[in-house]
Write a structure and sequence with these properties.
The protein has 478 residues and is an alpha/beta fold. It folds into three domains: 3-160 and 286-354, FAD/NAD(P)-binding domain; 173-283, FAD/NAD(P)-binding domain, CATH 3.50.50.60; 358-470, Enolase-like, domain 1 (2-Layer Sandwich), CATH 3.30.390.30. It has helices spanning 14-25, 49-54, 56-75, 90-114, 176-179, 196-207, 227-240, 333-347, 376-382, 397-401, 430-442, 447-452, 462-470, and strands at residues 3-10, 30-34, 117-121, 123-130, 133-140, 143-154, 158-160, 173-174, 188-192, 211-215, 243-245, 249-256, 259-265, 271-276, 278-281, 285-287, 320-322, 361-363, 368-373, 386-392, 408-414, 420-427.
Length: 478
Amino acid sequence: MSTQYDVVVIGAGPGGYIAAIRAGQLGMKVACIEGHSYDDPKGEPRLGGTCLNVGCIPSKALLASSEEFEKISHHAEDHGISVSGAKMDVAKMIKRKDDIVTKMTGGIQYLFKKNKVTPIKGWASFSGKVEGGFELTVKTAAGEEKVTAKQVIVATGSKARHLPNVPVDNEVICDNEGALKFGAVPKKLGVIGAGVIGLELGSVWRRLGAEVTVLEAMPNFLAACDEGVAKEMLKIFTKQGLKINMGVKIGDVKASKKGVSVAYTDADGNAQTLDCDKLIVSVGRVPNTDGLNLEAVGLKTNDRGQIDVDAHCQTLVAGIYAVGDVIRGAMLAHKAEEEGVMVAEIMAGQAGHCNYDTIPWVIYTSPEVAWVGKTEQQLKQDGRKYKTGQFPFMANGRALGQGDSQGFVKVLADATTDEVLGVHIINSHASDLIAEAVMAMEFKASSEDIGRICHAHPSLSEVMKEAALACDKRQLNG
């Protein structure tokens, strides 16, 4: 006999566990099923999904450690601090990262208990429709068990996309998982893909001494960013020592005990070879829908491997929802969380909502890049008349005091109504500063609204105020 729930969530990543918690808060009987162990020492399934186990959280831990090393090794002198012989204990750095992940996964277990969510360890698949809902089969360590649910949320996330004929062993040729656990700093590191993950992981090992070469198929660097931001970041990354080659075509990739050899054609059509000790393949991600047996309930994936949903994340089958990386839209943890909350609230009869126009993007390099809303090129393509305000951190006292004055804030506003249409930031604290822009856009603020808000002095946030004022050429400190 199967156990019955109001809601069953498949997947315990950011979209899944947040949806389960919110559904529990709203008084529903909830179960959340997760089967992935993520190299758990005991082989136990771990909560948190890719983001917490082998994505967002561990990569930010390594970014922080490598940034501290670079500051001590190369920038302490600027503050009058003399340091010599700084060394990085890679094993200790990796252990610190692993300890943070373990602590966070334990935190989700606590939250499940607090909100009366039943965790089920195993792999779930649909068995079919039953009276009053849906039946699922869960393969656990002890065998199979059946559960039924009035409603189901699919939140199975995504996995790294691999290139054909490029075997990833996560030892020599790695995706994001292998790149997070190198045992030592490679002398030469190759990265295929100049996207967010490739740039972040490339930056980690570059700071620790690796010679990093990035190969990207697209002709334009950071094409999703505002063109002004992308141009500035290419300069910064190049100055830092990342070798970035755009418009390349990857050929044969051969791995041996000595390392990896990558044959490629450069943007000018010349045959080239990159020899490196390790290679990171970072060419995007694909939805995790394998083994769900969607056909049993009348569903299937589209040509991108995604599950089609409506504006409120309901699939073509009433009562089955999908959120996060398995559906259309940005593959971002916070986007999945917003969708998870929306779906849980809709299930409870509330007016759940997710504003896709105000979801922020962040690249956690040094400096960070963050943006929300439209880019200049998008506004031009849309034929929308706009005005621009931009202000540099080099004119900000707090940034100069911190020894980190790279970058700027750029505000794009409607030429007639002054409504803020997009904000773009380059700064080491961009991921935090962008929150003000998100709130402003959520409440349909004008650039004048931001410019008239009192910002603390001295603070980095003053650059946001100055950029907003600059939309009407009213900046006060530049």
